Amino acid sequence: MRIKLVQRLNPLNRSQSPKYYAHAENEGVAKLDDLAKQITKYSSLSSGDILSVLENMIDAAALFLQTGRGVQMGRLGMFRIMLKSDGVATPEEFNCNSIRPVKVRFRPNRKFKKELEGIPYEMIK
């Protein structure tokens, strides 16, 4: 993984001198097709078969999330819905229109996080 140093102010104390922090260099995005092609290297299924399963998985996960269920994706982790709304003084004052847009939260599985340990870093300028 390529990293570079970025100078930033401390947001809690802007009077302090800026410091340098590591920043992961974005090398692009792996799309669903890319995942399907990579998975074919470990499977007897075709890229099209895998892509179909991944697309159907997305639809199924969205359906479960819409019904209030979390979606556990094995070693990958868990997806769940988070809601925020405006506060009201009494239950009678509450209106579903006060719910802000839904946020999907992802919590990686410990095994998945462990697979990301020991990444070799390359400093760039």
Topology diagram in text:
Elements (H helix, E strand, L loop, with lengths): L1 E7 L10 E6 L7 H9 L6 H20 L4 E2 L4 E6 L20 E6 L1 H6 L6 E2 L2
Parallel strand pairs: 1-6
Antiparallel strand pairs: 1-2, 3-4, 4-5
Helix pairs in contact: 1-2
Walk me through what this model shows.
The chain has 125 residues and is of the alpha+beta class. The chain has a domain of 47 residues. The protein is 28% helix and 23% strand. It has three helices and six strands; from the N terminus they run ββααβββαβ. It has a three-stranded mixed β-sheet, with no helix packed on it. A three-stranded antiparallel β-sheet has the order 3-4-5. Strand 3 and strand 4 form a beta hairpin. Helix 1 crosses helix 2. It is flat. It starts with a strand and ends with a strand. 2% of the residues are buried.
